[in-house]
Design goal:
The chain is an alpha+beta fold. Helix content is 30%, strand content 23%. It has two domains: 7-175, PvuII Endonuclease, Chain A; 184-253, Orthogonal Bundle (Arc Repressor Mutant, subunit A), CATH 1.10.10.10.
Length: 256
């Protein structure tokens, strides 16, 4: 695999967005692989397929490719809000591939956001386009990357170097059990894990996470039993073998 693009394949295009799209999609078609199974090939989806650019022919896992000169840290503009929310509700949302490049078409990084981490609380509804716009009334969305913890951001290429394929797939598959849960439950689990990681220590207690109760209340303002829900999610993460119960309200991470 090569961590460099071939700009010559898009010589007939003039628009910068078109150049970036054609060149990056051609690179992924030649170098991409599925994270959800052992297939070493991805195929491009049909033109105008909503929310998906590539698909694995073996397991049908979908991917949406985003290319940047500088990867956004907070919010990533995406397509139609209704289409994305529908796919999340149906469990068919794609995994995101965030590809960051240099001005001379070298790849700096490629990061996967597994579909399991795309939950309602990370999808931000944008304001409708105004009456003078070509698509007046259209409502897009932002994907709030700052609401996705580091467990949900898997490096495939880091500083121009490929991360071993086995390591990437193992990290992806750790969280496949989340795919079986309803979107809101996945959101609770992902948020709990992000908060736990944010504590910055390998071991923690119930009082440690209760101190972050406001974070959960802001994400789920209608829930009146936040602490009960937190304890439930600790059990979920324990069953997933991500944390271990040490007794008397104390826990530790099994996955660094």
């Amino acid at each position: 695999m090569e961590a460099v693009f071939d700009p010559s394949i898009a010589a007939r295009y003039k628009s910068r967005p078109q150049l970036a799209r054609v060149i990056s999609e051609a690179w992924l078609a030649s170098n991409g692989y599925c994270l959800a199974c052992t297939s070493d090939k991805l195929r491009q989806s049909k033109a105008n397929t909503k929310c998906m650019d590539f698909i694995c022919s073996h397991c049908n896992h979908g991917y949406e490719l985003k290319t940047f000169l500088r990867r956004p840290l907070k919010a990533l503009p995406d397509g139609a809000y209704a289409a994305m929310m529908s796919r999340i509700d149906e469990g068919t949302a794609p995994s995101l591939l965030l590809l960051e490049r240099t001005a001379n078409w070298h790849i700096k990084s490629l990061t996967a956001i597994p579909s399991m981490f795309l939950t309602p609380i990370v999808i931000e509804k944008r304001n409708p386009l105004g009456p003078s716009a070509a698509r007046a009334g259209w409502i897009g969305c932002n994907i709030r990357l700052d609401r996705i913890g580091l467990d949900g951001q898997i490096s495939i290429i880091d500083q121009g170097e490929f991360v071993p394929k086995k390591q990437v797939r193992e990290q992806f598959k750790k969280f496949l059990p989340l795919a079986k849960k309803k979107p809101e439950e996945r959101g609770w689990t992902a948020l709990t894990l992000m908060v736990l990681r944010g504590l910055g220590k390998p071991s923690f207690s119930l009082p440690d996470i209760y101190e972050k109760e406001q974070t959960f209340m802001e994400a789920y303002p209608e829930n009146r039993h936040v602490r009960d829900k937190i304890r439930q999610q600790l059990q979920v993460l324990r069953d997933m073998k991500i944390i271990r119960f040490e007794g008397r309200g104390n826990y530790s991470f099994l996955i660094p």
